[in-house]
């Protein structure tokens, strides 16, 4: 059985994972960490430094501001960590890579199986369509409480296309300040925030007289929770290094 510390246990994703693990015989949440405290079926600590529960792995769905302290804690305790929080700075991502020299770190912009399959499909499409002159645009939609924009998943989708084309593209987030034609080597990324949209991503390849669209819609947070739990099972006991969801999928 994989013993998990849920970092950010009172958040929406933390609550979904808590319910999922309660029905999963292969996992058990042994402790939660949340600044708001509170009660749960497991002990909840308001600070990581107070958490002394023996565990196999930490699953993080918290806030970007809490990630650096989390990484320090995991390195100190030699605990693998599934890092699901988005909106991390370049500095924080570098610290995650540094931590991966000592512990197993799994970082993914999106935990769903569908999105990670889409990343692979986009690379194949880009190699065919981009040389044929197709423009690439990405539109992402999320609920009105999401703090970061664009979403980490939108950036991951853009990176997949860019990686396939040897980093030929630059990203454009706002065209309102400059009156000029669209550049040939740019990927436009647009963000929509409203209501309770769980997550919707659309990648558009627009050519002359034809448009090809790849779209992924998440109708509940359960798809991300399931991926995070599977990632935790995969990561427990792994040697130090950086991992992502493709490693989890390949292990199935």
Task: Give the radius of gyration.
Answer: 19 Å
- End-to-end distance: 17 Å
Question: Could you tell me the number of beta strands?
Answer: 12
Q: If you average the pLDDT, what whole number results?
A: 94
Structural class of the secondary elements? alpha/beta
Explain what you see.
The strands form two sheets. A seven-stranded parallel sheet has the order 3-2-1-4-5-6-12, sandwiched between helices. The chain has seven helices and twelve strands. Helix content is 33%, strand content 26%. The protein has helices spanning 12-22, 67-77, 90-99, 113-129, 152-164, 222-235, 245-250, and strands at 2-7, 27-33, 44-45, 57-60, 81-83, 104-107, 135-142, 170-172, 186-193, 199-207, 210-218, 241-243. The protein has 252 residues and is an alpha/beta fold. Helix 2 (67-77) runs parallel beside helix 3 and helix 4 runs parallel beside helix 5 (152-164). Helix 2 (67-77) links the parallel strand 4 and strand 5.
Tags for this entry?
about 250 residues, five-stranded mixed beta sheet, about 25% strand
Strand-helix topology:
Layout: E1 2-7, H1 12-22, E2 27-33, E3 44-45, E4 57-60, H2 67-77, E5 81-83, H3 90-99, E6 104-107, H4 113-129, E7 135-142, H5 152-164, E8 170-172, E9 186-193, E10 199-207, E11 210-218, H6 222-235, E12 241-243, H7 245-250
Parallel strand pairs: 1-2, 1-4, 2-3, 4-5, 5-6, 6-12, 7-9, 8-9
Antiparallel strand pairs: 7-10, 10-11
Helix pairs in contact: 1-6, 2-3, 4-5
